[in-house]
Structures are given as C-alpha cells and as structure tokens.
Amino acid sequence: MSKSLQSLKLALLNVGYAELDPLWDYDDVISPFIRLYYITSGSAMVYHSNEAIELKPGHIYLIPSYTFGRYKCDNYHTQYYISCLEEIKNGYSIFNFSSFIYESKANQMDLFYFKRLLELNPNRQLKNNNPKAYDNRPTLMDFEKKNEELSLSGYMETHAILEILISRFIREPNTQNTNHNLNKKFGMVLNHIHENLHHNLTVQQLANFCHLNTDYFSRVFNKNFGMRPNKYIQSKRIERSQLLLLSTNNSLKQIAELVGFENVSYFARIFKNHTGKTPGSFRIEQLKK
Prior knowledge:
Structural class: alpha+beta
CATH class of the largest domain: Mainly Beta
Strand content: 15-25%
Number of domains: 2
CATH superfamily of the largest domain: Jelly Rolls
Low-confidence stretches: 174-178
Strand order of the largest sheet: 1-8-3-6-9
Order of helices and strands: EEEEEEEEEHHHHHHHHHH
Helix content: 40-55%
Mean pLDDT: 84
C-alpha cells in the first residue's frame, strides 16, 4: 500500500434519506466529492464513466469525485445517501491507487452503516435534491465546522464508516509494475496541474511530462478521471477561482490571470458554463449567506 494512501482523509458533507420522483432529472453533473447511495425502493438511473447504471433496491452505489454524470428517475425511488470529500497529501486521489466498481449488492451491514452515520450526524440532510446544488467547493466550507463539532469518538467512527463503505467498491489492484508506474505518473501529473493552473497547460505538455504518447495519455486520463485532460484542467481552474472569489478582494481580471484564463470575458463565459452564474453574481450571492 502506498504511503500516500495512508494520509487519506474523508470529510463528511451530507448524509440523509430521500424520497425522489421524476423531478430528480439532472444532466452534466460533476462534483468535487464522492457520492454513495443505498437504494431502499423503486428505481432510477445514473450515467457516468461511460456506463448506464440502474439503481436497484438492496444495492449500494459509488459515484467518484470529479466524474461527469446524469441522474434520472422516471417514477420514484427512495435512498439513503452520503457525500464526502477525500483528501490525500500531494494532491493524489484514492481513485489513483486502484480501479473501482460502481455497484455492489448490499450486505447485512451496509444499511446499518448508512443509518449509523445518519445517527452520528443528524441534521446533515440535503436541503435541495438537485445534485448540482452542492457542486461548488466554497459552498461546502460550512461542513468543516460541523465536522469539527463532532466528539472525538463521533469523528473517528464517522471516518471509519466512510472508509468501510468506500472499501466495498475497490477492485483488487493490478500489481504489475507497469500499471503501478502509470498510476504514479498520473498522480504526479495531477500535482503538476494543480501547481501550474496559472500557466498555459496543454495535453501535449502533460503527455510529455509522463513520457507518454499524447493520444494514449488522453485516453488513459479519461478512463481514470471520467473526463478529458482539458476538461479536468478547466474544472480545477473554476474551482480555484471560486475560492479566490470568496477568500480575496482580487478583481475578476486578477483572478482570471491567477487561474490561467486569457481574459476576463473568456473566464466569465467558462465560469457561467460550469456554475450557471457569472463570477460577479456568484461572489455577491455567496458572501450574502
């Protein structure tokens, strides 16, 4: 096991129970956090990672962080749900270290863990069932305070339950050295992206950084992270710009430059495509809360 993986930190965002109907119909969802579902009745569909997955009672489901998805319910379904942030030092993700399945038949303990997590963390239900409503990391900062308010035992049990549930989806890692080295390379390229968002980043440069063919690099990146490299870079730039909008008094021009956008108008257009709001309106709305 990688020493980096030993630094894994999981921070609970939401846990709750929901009864959903055809209004649960959302496209182009991408979230900076992991989603877990336990389905208790009815059915629905989620589409992500080039798969169409039917949500069935008695099964648990994983949607990795930073994965584009579509959510659709034609009739009704009921679910326990969990969302959590993951953090590993040096910018790695747990999804760098192994392959994952996205559906598993629930065992007798899974429902207990969902209910126990809800018992440990009351009043953490979503106020809005729209998956896009909680996609922006700055709007998630309040959850850090709630986690800090937990008792030591409550915090440790919460973290342990999250680890147990996520572990249910891990495939046995491929131990071939070539795959180990490839995972290491992609962990390093994520670091490189995060540290150089203010610079011009191209797929060619990133492929060269990994000593890989450009087309092969792009395909493997998409397979591992659910999006093409340019889309990932764009999402990270928007995420960082959100933090800067809320944590600094920098002008939009300064923020655009700090996250690698050529000009303010292009920055504003991409920001709105991702969040549905202009940078200025986002800053005003969030600071009023």
